[in-house]
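=== Structure Prediction Worksheet ===
Name of assembly: unnamed complex
Input type: mixed (protein and possibly other molecules)
Chain count: two
Listed entries:
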Amino acid sequence: MKTAWRLTLAMIIALTLVACKTAPKAPEPAPVEKDTTPVVETQAAPNPHDYADPRNFDNPESLLSKRVIYFDFDKSTVLPEYRGIVSAHAAYAAAHSSARITLEGHADERGTREYNLGLGERRGNAVMGLMTAQGARADQVVVVSYGEERPTCRVSDEACWALNRRVEVVYTAR
Amino acid sequence: MTVTDNVKKILFFCMALMASGPALAQLEIQIISGNPSALPIAIVPFQWAEAGPAPSTPVDEIIAGDLYRSGLFDPMDKSDMAERPVDEESIRFGTWRLLKVDYIVVGRVQTPSDGSGHELVYQLFDVHTQERLLSQVTVVGAGDLRFGAHRVADAIYEALTGVPGAFSTRIAYITAAGLGPEQRYELVVADADGFGPQTVVGSPEPLLSPAWSPDGKKLAYVSFEKGNSAIYSQDVATGARELISGGAGINGAPSFSPDGKKMALTLSRTGNPEIFVRDMATGKMTQLTNHWAIDTEPTWSPDGNTIYFTSDRGGKPQIYRVPPTGGTPERVTLEGNYNARASVAPDGRRIAVAHGRGNEYRIAVWDMETERFTIITPGVLDESPSFAPNGSMVLYATREGNRGVLSAVSADGNVRQRLILSDGDVREPAWSPVIR
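=== Predicted Assembly ===
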């Protein structure tokens, strides 16, 4: 199982690397028909740190493209390495008043289902608290806990559990 | 009981299962460990005195299966029966004494005088004293012969143990099959021996936390069908259902009061999960807990005077109790790092919980008088304990490989059995009350 996971991880990393190389490429200039019309000027790549720019949702160099925050077992503290992701989405929400976000809280399979619903909600609330402290309005963000009911993987080991203890940032309106 | 005996029994039950009804999505029951001090009993094949053909699964096999699975009885294999008496006059007790049987049941199935349904006429004897311990007629409607056989097993169990049987009850559980967009959840009700599964509700979104009404007619459950958790109460026979609570935040963990007039549930509309009590007639909600912790999984004591619930107000999840009218919650479980989702025994003196230690979760029974735990399952990820209505067994969810299965264990932990579905996960068992 561990080998399988390493392979999966390796594939994800490989795919990400490919995406990093190709994704931000500007559109090809239109084929020139004789020389009557001037070449349309290509748009500049988005600044990955401009979190108000919706193009960064698909820019793997920008934190706005990352939408999953992971947690420690039975904890709801947003770890330092994920604070940047939360801040990026908070900044986007602050800049776009029509944006609406659902924070889906999840837990791993250990422990009871209803307690895990509570834990998933607590994680969602922790992310929401940080987002509203950084400029998102409370009415832009809603927390829905799925507890352990929607795992991303179904193996009973730490690697899988770590992937399931998460909050997913889902935009219902951008 | 020897290993060969166990293998024989398992084969016997597999054959019984194969012989009867459609096997699709049926729960298959396997005995994992038996009880060496089980009482030897002979359930002699009942005489079929009705006009039509005898059913493919004879009632004696249903009765023997029930008694065997209780762990307290060791029913004799039919092929070992030298004689097959059908009434008191034809029993030669000396023969049965030689066969080392302590008790014998004889009987017949006949059509009642009004011409519809079935009459199970039977007697139970002590082989050593030749005393008649039971002589009864159980009448059931057409199509309820299996139910009748379970009622006979209930009566035999009660006559010999002093505790009412719980074989003529039902179990509810959640199944989950498929992955991603193909994922499907179902709330299923089956007989306590796994037969006759019926889907009460199915959904592509998660279903969880089934809870029986005290009359066994309704099931409350949590459904994510509208994108967030919501509690419904549904009539099992008619399918009619009522939305109990579907506001923002968590709507979870429904539990009917023993008189059916109230429901305890978990709502997080105040910002974090709290226990509420809903008046079923008026719909009025009363908040019972008020704490920043996760307060959830309420369940009632049999007398209705106490609500047990899970709370991590002390740092880790533990069981607390509070009167349903309000008050200061008091901690109940005093050992271990993780104790959650209590099921109260019908005597009100014990609770079964999911008991976590490190990465291992087992079912443990907390005795409220001695204030001690007895761990009753070998676990790794055991959860959702549910006491049988007579307190003899605890049904729970466990994992086998990467799938969820149900198991049942005798309340002392000595006898275990496994209930397996043909595919997918089975989880969150809830044992029905006794249906009279």
